[in-house]
Amino acid sequence: MRLLRLIQPVVLIVVAVGVIGGAVAWIFGGANDVKAAWDAIEAREYDQAIRLATRAIRFGRLTGEDLSSAFECRATASMRTDQLGHALEDLGRIVTVRPDYAGGYFLRGEVRLRQKDYDQALSDLNQGIKIADPDGKSPNRFLAKRYAHRGVVWLGKKDVDHALADFNRSLDLNPKAAETYYFRSFAFERQKLLPQALADMETAVKIYDSNIFSLPRGDWLYRLEQLRQRAKP
Amino acid sequence: MYEAFLVGIVISALVGLATGWIRYWMGFFVLFQGVIASLLIAWLVGKYLKRSASNLNPSNGTALLVALAWLLSFWAAQIYGLGLAQPWFDPLGYFGRILQGDARETSFGLAATAGWARGFHGGFGGVFWVILNVIDSAIMYLFLFRMPWPDLTRTPSDDALQEAAANTENPARGES
Predict the structure, then answer these.
(1) Rounded distance, CA A78 to CA A80, Å?
(2) A208 and A220 in contact (C-beta within 8 Å)?
(3) Which of B25, B90, B97 to mutate to test the interface with A (most CBs of A within 10 A)?
(4) H runs (alpha helix) in A30-83
(5) Sign of CA dihedral A100, A106, A111, A117
(6) B100 touches chain A (CB under 8 A)
(7) Which pLDDT band holds residue B159 (cuts at 50, 70, 90)?
(8) H or E stretch covering A212
(9) pTM value > 0.95
(10) Res B169: pLDDT
(11) What average pLDDT does this structure show over B72-100?
(12) What is the pLDDT of residues A127-159, one digit of tens each?
């Protein structure tokens, strides 16, 4: 009888926790929240994206790919709002949850590049490229941006040859990437190849201006003018 | 009165903490949040005061000030509670961005226009968000100000006597 009295509240608590947990899981559908969070990223509502992704992570009972997607969404929102420390935390979790997912390494490499932590950035980008393009022959255009990032890391480490190799590979994958031409012009400039640097800068500005939605980039035009002056015989 | 004031501050803070936490996850339930929170605070304070032996009969001025202090306590705790729900504590930044119109808060409620009641929901920010919050807080303030303070001059024995008198009076009335 005494045992029954002891068990009774425990059973009641377990049932109550189950009912409340079930209700919370029913109200906050994890997969729906992740989808809504990505929609919020598209709409540039980053606070909403962080809120919805966090709700999915805490209450959505997500695992594997879905959980990784929620972390990636939150990390993306943090990156767009310049909260790089928070983004790094989440990207670290993605790498832990899905160690074979190249996207986690790419994004973490990008964040570390923005923090000018070149060694760690290089390590992450190498790992990502090793997973996504193991033989270096993938035709995937989305990899162009990643090779360009690694090229910038090499530039930061003052290794121009490796940087040029990565920029070339990036332009092979996507020959219309204005930013890659812009970055490669710095590599040529370091090698004192001013005509090539000028040619890349002109191509970058031309491609950039062909997009009617792009805002004027004063820094690019200024650099182009500087290179023109220096390239004059 | 001082004890009642402090108890109210603590209860408002606890209710505010819970409200802020829920508000981050679910959104802002305009008017209902203020009504439910103020009724809960008033009920809990009343429950506590019924046990107290002190005699309370605040003037309108005192009740207004007490309600204001409780409201402020509720708001401070609500902001803190919202921050606790966030992945990284930044409630002022969150509200600041909504205030500036750079972010929006999910809000929902009921509105009555020209005799038609309809539900609304969506993301609000900027001036409109401020107006919704002011309306909600005004209702809450009114409820807190008008809360029925327990009449402690009456004792349980008074109530029992009155009840007994009522029971004995009714049959007599029926006979006459």
Answers:
(1) 5
(2) yes
(3) B25
(4) 30-42, 46-59, 64-80
(5) positive
(6) no
(7) low
(8) none
(9) no
(10) 61
(11) 94
(12) 999 998 888 888 888 899 999 999 999 999 999
Burial label, A97 (beta-carbon count in 10 A; 0-12, 13-18, 19+): middle
CB contact under 8 A, A47 and B97: yes
Between chain A and chain B, the number of residue pairs with CB atoms below 8 A apart is 27
CA–CA gap between residue A74 and residue A41 (Å, rounded): 9
ipTM of the complex: 0.77
Subunit contact A48:B123, Cβ cutoff 8 A: yes
Average pLDDT over residues A102-119: 93
With CB atoms and an 8 Å threshold, state whether A74 touches B103: no
What value does the mean pLDDT take over residues B35-46?
91
State whether residue B108 sits within 8 Å of chain A by CB: no
Amino acid at A72: E
**CA gap B40, B42 in Å, rounded:** 5
H/E element, B161: helix B156-175
Here the tokens at position A33 are 């929240």
Distance CA B114, CA A110 (A): 55
Is B97 in CB contact (< 8 Å) with chain A?
Answer: yes
For the beta sheet containing B116-124, the strands, ordered from the edge strand earlier in sequence to the opposite edge, are B28-29, B105-113, B116-124
Placement of tokens 């009714």 in the chain:
B170
**d(C-alpha A210, C-alpha B55), whole Å:** 80
Contact criterion met (CB < 8 Å) for B98 and A55: no
Question: B103 vs A86: CB contact, 8 Å cut-off?
Answer: no
Domain extents for chain B?
A: 2-175
Hey, what amino acid is at B39? L
Contacts of residue B37, Cβ cutoff 8 Å, sequence gap at least 6: B15, B16, B19, B74, B140
Using CA atoms, how far apart are residues A28 and A207, in angstroms rounded to an integer? 45
The string of pLDDT tens digits covering residues B108-155 is 888 777 777 778 788 888 899 999 999 999 999 999 988 777 665 556
Are residues A225 and A217 in contact, defined by beta-carbon separation less than 8 angstroms?
no
Which chain A residues are closer than 8 Å to B94 by Cβ? 47
Q: What is the per-residue pLDDT for B176?
A: 42
Lookup: tokens for B108: 């929902």
Taking CA atoms, B22 is separated from A62, B17, B38, B81, in Å, by 21, 9, 16, 8
